Amino acid sequence: MGPGKDNLSDSVSVLTQRQLDKFIRDYRIPLDFNPVLPSKDETVYPFRQGKFPLYTRVCNFANYRVPFSNVFRYFYEFITAGDWYTFAHRKGIPSPSGDERSSLKNWKDNFFWLDDRCLPVEMVWRFKDQSMSFDLGEGFVFNHELARALIDNQSPP
24, 66, 107, 138: which sits with the fewest CB atoms below 10 Å from its CB? Predict the structure, then answer.
């Protein structure tokens, strides 16, 4: 059985070191986040201690960047999809991507590890039995200039 939504313990990466090096250059991943290619038989779950798996296709197709920031939260909201947490584009906000997709197939086989400090400090890990708020809230602060630059310079379709 290939990687699916209920079997992350079967999900391995097919990235090569050469592909990872190019991805790091192209997307300007800071080297101080210690990007590491998984071994050929290493699954995405369980996570490596102190690491976060980054799937390359979220950068390719949704214009994500590392480190993540509140600008990301401006464009996307956290949603549930069955037992999964995922992101959906916020309604009424221009897209930072020229190729906004409702579904992306075969994305789980291209990941690598980054230090988990690339995640926002305020990010809280959630579990399916916990409630979540999707609102930005009145005190939400983000870099408006960066958001405008991402809209004006969308990732190519």
Answer: 138
* Amino acid letter for position 108: K
User: Confidence band (pLDDT; 50, 70, 90) for 36?
Assistant: very high
- Residues belonging to the chain: 157
Find the helix or strand (DSSP H, E) in which 87 lies: strand 84-89
Distance of alpha carbon 31 from alpha carbon 72, whole angstroms: 21
Query: Is pLDDT of 132 > 90?
Result: no
CA atoms lying within 13 Å on the CB side of residue 134: 13
pLDDT, one tens digit per residue, over 85-100 is 667 778 888 777 666 5
Look up tokens 């197709």; give the residue. 61
